[in-house]
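Support reply, case 0932

Customer input (verbatim):
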Amino acid sequence: MPVAINVCVIVPCYNNPETISGVVGDAAGSGFPVIVVDDGSTNPLPDMRDATVVRHDVNRGKGAAILTGARLARERGATHIITMDADGQHLGVDIPALVAVAEKEPDALVVGVRDFDGENIPASSRYGREWSNLWITFHNGERCLDALSGFRLYPIDRLLECAPKSDGFESEAETLILWGRFEWPIRWVGVKVVYAPPGERVSHFRKGRDNWRLTKLHTRFFFGSLWRKVTGRRNTKTSWVKKPRGLPLAYRFMEFSIKMAGRRSAYVVAWFVVPYFYLFAPEATRNIIRFLKRAAGSSSVTAISVYQAFAVSLIDRVARVSGSQTGLYQVAPDRELMRKTVVDNGRVIFLSAHFGHWDVGMRFAIDSGFNVAALMNRDQADFAQAYFERADIGKPRVLAVDEGRGVVDIVNALNEGLSVAMHGDRIMRGQRPVSVNFLGEQVDIPSGPYQVAYVTGTAILPVFCVKTGVDEVTIEMAEPIIPLKTSRNGRDAEIARMANLYTEALEKVVKTHPEQWFNFHDFFGDDR
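Our regenerated output:
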């Protein structure tokens, strides 16, 4: 049965003043909103009442323009985008055919296969398509019908999840390869194509430069594709959430060490853990190094420092939960701010991150007399619930969440008067993201905390717990973020405002203590 999807048409444009108005008018005739991404044109565009126009200050390439349009469309509530070239070769009458396929398979990339039996079809376009089709078929193992078509329908979340590294024309070929690598469906729909007579067509495809970029692209993926064919290995994209192998055993081993030798002596165990992670978790190590370049610059903080701090945090966590935290002090300069915020609002969302000793902050809240429920992914929740209940005082309730589910439990907990503690810096599959500025770059973080805060009228209190000494953990609190009720059209802007306030607070603490950033996944999309 077809499902409802929300479509927006994206037209990347670079110096197409003669054709852009006709393309926009044709696309708007489909009934869907249109966004024109002016990719640094040197010739001014005509006024267009039927489209929203967003501009790059400099020419960044077609791929970058498509991603800019996709992000803006998502902010406006779209689930899918259709891309059309600005030179007039695609026709608005074919849009419903792409949408019909997406309504049946909303996760599919739908590509318009251009009919090359018409007039004025350049020979270079025919040969180029056949050559590129062969390469994409090689990479994906399934027949490609039109690798170079710019008339496509994308599910926005999947497009942004596998965002290609390429910014130019080759980005569309790379997207097809990545889609195949992740084993997501690709569907082909026949469409008409219109080419202007020789001498009238405006094309920004530079045969030398862009063909060289396409060659480099296929070379980059060649050996991986060959390996997949020889070994039969698949490379399916999976969620970042992985079942924590050996977690109960590791925690109990650390607990035994702490009880036998004390918490400080147990820190020696960390030196055996650090080399293991550094050598056998290369992806995490790369992501740590990339983060440190942005947050720490030329400071002396290294990936080894981060792993060491992480191991210490695990030991402190076990010490706290097992009741063996003797000598571990909590310093809270703004204790009264926390108390006042909770008292004034009845309950709050304690929003932390994969940073520092977040669990010590939860213990601090419980010790202060607050009823707190902790949000955890489902793989960890059952074990964590049992482990938390072994603490000497207090029994925090655990809310299990998996791939975006569990929102109802969060709302129910808040309605019961419980405060909820959660992280705001990592997206699970199924969650809707919100784009924020973090360390000078636009990144996606989960919008869930802010949506819940908005719907329930719950204040958000950013709380970060920093290890500031061998026996000391300092609790850093930012100003409460109070959701403001707005009109329906202003809801997304309000969610973005709250998200950026949280990110500003997070950025401040990670710059001060970059070695305690434990978000080891590809946060900035460097591997895309």
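We compared this against your earlier run and they match. Two observations from our side: Residues 207-231 form the longest helix (25 residues). Residues 235-246 have pLDDT under 50 and may be disordered. Please reopen the case if you see a mismatch on your end.
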